[in-house]
Specification:
This protein is mainly alpha-helical. The protein has 2 domains: 57 residues; 45 residues, no CATH class. It is built from 5 helices and 3 strands, in the order ααααβββα. A 3-stranded antiparallel β-sheet has the order 1-2-3, covered by helices on one side. A hairpin with a 2-residue loop joins strand 1 and strand 2. The two termini are 21 Å apart. The relative contact order is 0.12.
Length: 126
């Protein structure tokens, strides 16, 4: 647990450096902070014994994240209707690289498609 807390502290420190670099509009420091974050993250992956499984885990998370995008205009329109019917969230869609992304109007956050499927990591960890 102590090593896990150290990893979290290191990630927080590097994330703070990234935030400062962005605020200072310093691309060199942004690059440095991103590389440091990746380095510390890689260490954490190995610390938790996930090194040999990480690509499979990452691929599953990537699959899930990509399922947030709508494949058709119809799916995008149904997704917009779903969020409006659920809690009056207003949204719109844009085509990006052949997919249709639905965005919340209030803050342009990407909303999940009605066909979104969450990552299932547990089978890969057993």
């Amino acid at each position: 647990k102590q090593r896990a807390n150290l990893r979290v502290a290191l990630l927080a420190e590097e994330l703070k450096e990234l935030q400062e670099a962005i605020e200072n509009d310093d691309l060199v420091e942004v690059a440095d902070a991103l590389c440091d974050l990746q380095y510390v993250l890689a260490g954490a992956i190995h610390e938790f014994g996930l090194g040999g499984k990480f690509k499979t885990l990452f691929d599953e998370v990537h699959r899930s994240n990509m399922s947030k995008a709508c494949k058709t205009i119809e799916e995008a329109e149904l997704t917009i209707k779903h969020y409006f019917d659920k809690d009056q969230t207003e949204s719109y869609y844009k085509e990006v690289d052949g997919l249709f992304l639905v965005f919340r109007k209030a803050d342009d956050k990407t909303l999940k498609s009605i066909n979104y499927s969450p990552a299932d990591l547990k089978p890969h960890l057993v």
